[in-house]
């Protein structure tokens, strides 16, 4: 084993997966920009305080953040998620509302690594700040749903919940504290610790000994005021109108602490239950204020690219886009002809590759076949002397012709644009 390997929970992503990651991000970009979302790019590193505003009882922030003091003495953190950073950007730039943005990139959480759970992972993300309209919630949920469907995924379940407004959520948390507190003796040790920090999260426990108490716990629906109930109804009606199936999941609490009202998750059908959330999101109406801005409603979603690709593997969809060139240049005269021909061909907007290291004709032709190119351009000493090149088809039977070097690019362009026989 070599001296250096990637750190636990961090991976090199090589082809074909690297190409798939890019294709997923491209697909999300197309979906988001097609719905009026603008790209925002925020720093990987922020003042740690930005993420503290996600909520103190949030494990992602309290226990999993890559947080350190930089050389200037600043308390900084690698982003564990985008939402708080985008909230910070909103407060800093005060764009007109509703502000619809999307982004993508790496996030960092110091988790126990396992399939679908890494310490560096990729998300695509969309946020809308400054609108209270429940139809924004519908648009957001539909954006993620249609995106996953467009990748070819069919076994995804949409879980929908509302955590009520802030005061309702707080009353519910109190009720949970009382319920679980009264039966603490029968709770697992881990859940007793969770109860002290964040009673809502006890509902997430998968431990068998907790299940009976969880089933008997009060339900958030009992705490909705008329406005929350009406908001949720509009969201449900909107999803119905779009024909998007969902399951109301009153126990869905999500891992981040800023959520109020609408929350949702896309659960993959093939993944282990601890890692089956492909993505999720919800409303975070208090976050912008907590970051020092004016009271501003917000809603967003993030979808985990790594986990989504695992789900695609399991369902046998979204294969890697083929990485091929159009033209492969074989040059047995020393390599300078390949240099100029590749440069001309690439300048004309075609994809071209070549061999190096003075390989034999045979070895270069093998490389040409492996490259996936449709056409090999061959230059030997005869062609070099005559100012010509051979164009040989690599796909249909090796037909070839000699063309003037000066006309090569136009011949290649014409041939490659011609419909395939
Ligand atoms: P989240 O549920 O923490 O939400 O993450 C969203 C998705 O990111 C997860 O469903 C999962 O696919 C992926 N993910 C999270 N942690 C890991 C990990 N350690 N390894 C691999 N994938 C992971 C958020 O991050 C919120 N910011 C979503 C949001 C946006 N809410 C409002 N706006």
Précis, in short:
The protein has helices spanning 17-33, 48-52, 59-62, 83-93, 134-150, 166-182, 189-197, 199-202, 211-215, 226-242, 287-290, 305-315, 336-347, 361-371, 381-386, 408-417; strands at 38-39, 45-47, 67-69, 75-78, 99-108, 120-129, 156-162, 247-248, 260-268, 277-283, 298-304, 327-331, 352-354, 375-379, 388-393, 400-404.
Primary descriptors:
421 residues; BirA Bifunctional Protein, domain 2; Rossmann fold; eight-stranded mixed β-sheet; 16 helices; 16 strands; binds histidyl-adenosine monophosphate; alpha+beta; 2 domains; 21% strand
Describe the overall structure.
The protein contains 16 helices and 16 strands. The longest helix has 17 residues, at about 15-35. The chain folds into two domains: about 15-165 and about 225-315, 2-Layer Sandwich (BirA Bifunctional Protein, domain 2), CATH 3.30.930.10; about 325-415, Anticodon-binding domain (Rossmann fold), CATH 3.40.50.800. Helix content is about 40%, strand content about 20%. The structure holds histidyl-adenosine monophosphate (HAM). The site of histidyl-adenosine monophosphate (HAM) has 27 residues, from β6, β10, β11 and α12.
């Amino acid at each position: 084993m070599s001296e250096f390997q990637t750190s636990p929970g961090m991976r090199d992503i090589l082809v074909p997966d690297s190409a798939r990651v890019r294709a997923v991000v491209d697909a999300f970009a197309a979906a988001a920009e097609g719905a009026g979302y603008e790209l925002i790019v925020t720093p990987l590193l922020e003042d740690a305080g930005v993420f503290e505003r996600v909520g103190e009882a949030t494990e992602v922030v309290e226990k999993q953040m890559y947080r350190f003091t930089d050389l200037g003495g600043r308390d900084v953190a690698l982003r564990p998620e985008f939402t708080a950073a985008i909230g910070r950007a909103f407060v800093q730039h005060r764009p007109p509302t509703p502000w619809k943005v999307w982004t993508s990139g790496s996030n960092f959480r110091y988790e126990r690594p396992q399939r679908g759970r890494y310490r560096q992972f990729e998300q695509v993300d969309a946020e809308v700040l400054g609108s209270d309209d429940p139809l924004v919630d519908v648009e957001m949920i539909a954006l993620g749903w249609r995106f996953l469907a467009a990748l070819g995924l069919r076994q995804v379940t949409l879980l929908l919940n509302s955590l009520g407004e802030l005061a309702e959520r707080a009353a519910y948390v109190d009720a949970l504290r009382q319920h679980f507190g009264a039966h603490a003796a029968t709770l697992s040790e881990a859940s007793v610790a969770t109860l002290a920090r964040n009673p809502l999260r006890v509902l997430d426990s998968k431990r068998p000994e907790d299940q009976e108490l969880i089933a008997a716990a009060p339900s958030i629906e009992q705490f909705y005021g008329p406005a929350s109930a009406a908001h949720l109804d509009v969201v449900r009606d909107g999803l119905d109108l779009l024909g998007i199936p969902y399951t109301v999941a009153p126990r869905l609490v999500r891992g981040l602490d800023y959520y109020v009202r609408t929350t949702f998750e896309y659960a993959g059908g093939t993944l282990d239950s601890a890692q089956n959330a492909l993505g999720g999101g919800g409303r975070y109406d208090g976050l912008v204020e907590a970051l020092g801005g004016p009271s501003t409603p917000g809603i967003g979603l993030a979808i985990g690219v790594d986990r989504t690709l695992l789900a695609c593997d399991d369902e046998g969809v979204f294969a890697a886009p083929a990485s091929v060139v159009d033209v492969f240049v074989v040059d047995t005269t020393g390599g300078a002809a390949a240099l100029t021909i590749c440069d001309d061909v690439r300048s004309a907007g075609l994809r071209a590759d070549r061999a190096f290291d003075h390989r034999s004709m045979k070895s270069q032709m093998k490389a040409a076949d492996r490259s996936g190119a449709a056409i090999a351009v061959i230059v030997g000493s005869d062609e070099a002397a005559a100012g010509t090149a051979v164009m040989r088809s690599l796909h249909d039977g090796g037909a070839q012709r000699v063309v003037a070097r000066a006309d090569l690019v136009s011949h290649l362009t014409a041939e490659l644009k011609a419909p395939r026989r």
